[in-house]
Design goal:
The complex is a heterodimer of chains A (339) and B (351). By secondary structure, chain A is α+β, with helices and mostly antiparallel strands. Chain A has eight helices and 17 strands. In chain A, 25% of the residues lie in helices and 26% in strands. In chain A, the strands form three sheets. An eight-stranded mixed β-sheet of chain A has the order 1-2-12-3-13-16-14-15, sandwiched between helices. In chain A, α1 packs antiparallel against α4 and α4 packs across α8. The radius of gyration of chain A is 21 Å and the shape is globular. The two termini of chain A are 34 Å apart. Chain B has two domains: 244 residues, 3-Layer(aba) Sandwich (Aminopeptidase), CATH 3.40.630; 88 residues, Beta Barrel (Elongation Factor Tu (Ef-tu), domain 3), CATH 2.40.30. Chain B contains nine helices and 17 strands. The chains are: A alpha+beta (339), B alpha+beta (351). At the A-B interface, β7 of A face β7, β10 and β11 of B.
């Protein structure tokens, strides 16, 4: 299954090769051309009807993770975070280190030896380390180098009523949707762009947008979901199982109102569930894309993901399917030149 | 079965304190191969018996390791199906955020422990640990379905399979004290190759993490001449002072202190030296907080010993140990119990 392969692949920002290779093997027979640019973005072109406007659909390939920065005298590995990770979710987790995915664990001080007030304080990154079972620095150095990337050790699991648990759903869910669009859309010309290093400052998207120079861009994402009970509804950014989340505003973009209204209209007309992303927190590749060259009109459409940026993020297959249905309709409207 | 394979099997199995029964069959079938008799008592302790070579009035030695593990318990079900929970045994709430769990309801349910995401917290909250009462378990089912499958009070375990690390080292959950159970297994395999006069009782105890209830009642029933507990000890890591820890790969720690019979302890140290088995010292002046404590004060008192297998990150789901230490613990136990006879016991117990 593609989403399983995509989420289990290793692709921390700046180290997207495994994900990129997987995507290329999936799309190469369905696109008219593709290239890997100087930053590592995949820029693919699919030829269909030319409507006189350039359409670009993007998804970032990278995920948050860790990077080894030191091996201490006893063979323990110290690390930095790559992208936004809440330090509190790292404790007591298995990880995979380096290209060969060497297993390791991030441990914690036994509760028996803690003072009661220690338990109320979050552990800092500098206090954490990875234990690969090495008996010495020399042994660790045979397997690990400074600069090695680290991913969460977390398998793809389907559970509950149509839910999926995996690491890196942000944003392999977007990659998976874009791959599916490439395979299924035949009647419209569009650019499909898989970007690098979104999680460390939207690095890949700018140069990719410069190259493509789109009129319209749709950014596909996995986004924040926090649908806890007994919470004021205005505090809930998105709900699971209520369909694709359409962005209004975030830290990087105020989204074009006309394009957004058109998308809402399409959803309504086709009975596709949708919701608005009700927070201005976060940002995505749209921030770079809508301001590149002479600018472009962008929209972000996201699949809601609980526990995002953790080893166990959760999404709904129903949301995935309705997001795909909405995207397909949007492209159909472009083809009929109604946008 | 290879001891390492048995330990992996035990670590991957589920058995929170008070709910150890899922482990019974695994332990009984493994122990039966090497023992004369294996039974289960009223509280769920598994008691294995191996007859000594001496016929009448045999010395009785009990070796105990606890089979229960720390875990969680269902407390409430929210309107959207999320489960609220509490802990069974000592759990640092910082070690469970973002973990995958199994809720042991009518059927086993997969779940994820979540909380408010950092983006929605005040910046001042970021340096605080998230409290257990602010966490939820997401099973992906609506309330009606969860209520059908889950009851208040159902136990919950962390979903974790053993990770094989470099060398002989492994990481996983519940190695405290399934490592002790594996050491008992290694011991009985070794005893099958050598003669021993004493009758040996191998007990995998219940509820050590909450009350030591299993050790209390099983040692009362067996009334052994010597009680030996096999548990885990704090493995050395950078954040812990060297004086409170023992080192991985350097063999079992032989505990010293008020809970331990001094002459028997000396004999244990001598046996380790004689057979060239690495061992280290662990110092606990008062009660040890292990089954050895329960045994010591059972009936009119039982001379007790404690062997600790070095283990890092105790009470997390990534407890880490060196399997060689488990094997050495089993071997030392075997040579020690084989050295006890009806003739020398009296002298050893003299103060």
């Amino acid at each position: 299954m593609l989403l399983k392969e995509l989420t289990e692949a290793s692709g921390v920002s700046g180290n997207e090769k495994e994900v990129r290779d997987l995507i290329i093997s999936e799309i190469k027979d369905y696109v008219d051309s593709y290239k890997i640019d100087r930053l590592g973005n995949i820029i693919a072109y699919k030829k269909g009807k030319d409507i006189g406007k350039k359409i670009m659909i993007t998804a970032h390939m990278d995920e948050v993770g860790l990077m080894i920065k030191d091996i201490d005298k006893d063979g323990f590995l110290k690390f930095m975070t790559v992208g936004g990770i809440d330090k509190r979710i790292l404790v007591s987790k298995p990880v995979l280190v380096g290209k060969d995915k060497l297993p390791g664990v991030i441990g914690a001080k036994p509760i028996h030896l803690q003072k009661p007030d220690e338990r109320t304080r979050a552990l800092n990154i500098d206090e954490l380390y990875i234990d690969i079972g090495a008996r010495s620095k020399e042994e660790a150095e045979r397997y690990v180098s400074i600069g090695d990337y680290v991913i969460f050790d977390s398998e793809y699991v389907e559970f509950g009523e149509g839910l999926v648990k995996a690491k890196a759903l942000d944003n392999r869910v977007g990659c998976s949707l874009l791959i599916k669009l490439i395979k299924e859309i035949k009647d419209l010309s569009f650019y499909a762009v898989f970007t690098v290093m979104e999680e460390v400052g939207l690095v890949g998207a700018g140069p990719a947008a410069y190259e493509v120079d789109p009129d319209y861009a749709i950014i596909l994402e996995g986004t924040l979901c926090y649908d806890m009970p007994k919470l004021d509804t205005h505090l809930i950014p998105t709900y699971l199982n209520k369909g694709p989340a359409i962005s209004l505003i975030d830290r990087t973009t105020i989204y074009n109102k006309d394009f957004r209204n058109k998308i809402v209209e399409i959803a309504k007309k086709n009975n596709i569930p949708y919701q608005f992303r009700k927070t201005s927190m976060g940002g995505n590749d749209s921030g770079k894309i809508h301001t590149t060259r002479e600018g472009s009109i962008t929209a972000t459409i996201s699949v809601p993901c609980r526990y995002i940026h953790s080893p166990a993020s959760v999404m709904s297959k129903k949301d995935y399917d309705s997001t795909f249905a909405l995207l397909k309709e949007i492209l159909y409207q472009f083809e009929r030149e109604e946008i | 079965m290879e001891t390492k394979v048995f330990l992996e099997l035990l670590s991957n199995s589920k058995g929170v304190s008070g709910y150890e029964y899922p482990l019974q069959d695994t332990i009984i079938s493994a122990f039966s191969k090497y023992l004369d008799n294996v039974s289960v008592d009223k509280l769920g302790n598994v008691i294995g018996f191996k007859k000594g070579t001496y016929k009448d009035n045999n010395v009785k030695i009990m070796i105990a390791a606890h089979m229960d593990e720390i875990g969680l318990m269902v407390k409430d079900i929210e309107d959207n199906g999320f489960i609220r929970f509490t802990n069974i045994g000592g759990i640092d709430p910082r070690t469970i955020l973002g973990q995958e769990v199994i809720v042991h309801g009518v059927e086993d349910l997969f779940g994820v422990i979540g909380s408010k995401p950092p983006h929605l917290q005040e910046p001042s909250e970021h340096n605080k640990a998230i409290k257990m009462e602010d966490m939820i378990i997401d099973t992906g089912y609506p309330k009606e379905k969860v209520e059908e499958l889950v009851n208040i009070g159902d136990p919950i375990t962390i979903r974790r399979n053993v990770k094989n690390l470099l060398g002989n080292r492994i990481a996983g959950k519940a190695l405290d004290d399934r490592a002790g159970v594996a050491a008992l297994y290694e011991c009985m395999k070794e005893l099958n190759k050598i003669q021993h006069e004493a009758d040996i009782y191998f007990v995998t105890t219940v509820q050590e993490e909450v009350s030591m209830a299993g050790a209390l009642v099983s040692s009362y029933k067996i009334n052994p001449d010597i009680g030996i507990a096999v548990d885990v000890g704090f493995g050395a890591t950078p954040e812990l002072p060297i004086s409170t820890t023992i080192e991985l790969g350097k063999g079992p720690a032989i505990t010293l202190g008020g809970n331990i019979h001094p002459n028997l302890r000396k004999k244990l140290v001598d046996i380790a030296k004689e057979y060239n088995i690495p061992s280290q010292v662990e110092v606990t002046p008062g009660p040890t907080g292990t089954d050895a404590r329960a045994m010591q004060i059972t009936r009119d008192g039982i001379p007790s010993l404690l062997l600790s297998i070095p283990l890092r990150y105790m009470h997390t789901s990534v407890e880490l140990l060196d399997v060689e230490d488990v094997r050495n613990t089993g071997k030392l136990l075997a040579f020690f119990v084989a050295s006890i006879s009806n003739d020398n016991l009296e002298g050893l117990l003299c103060y």
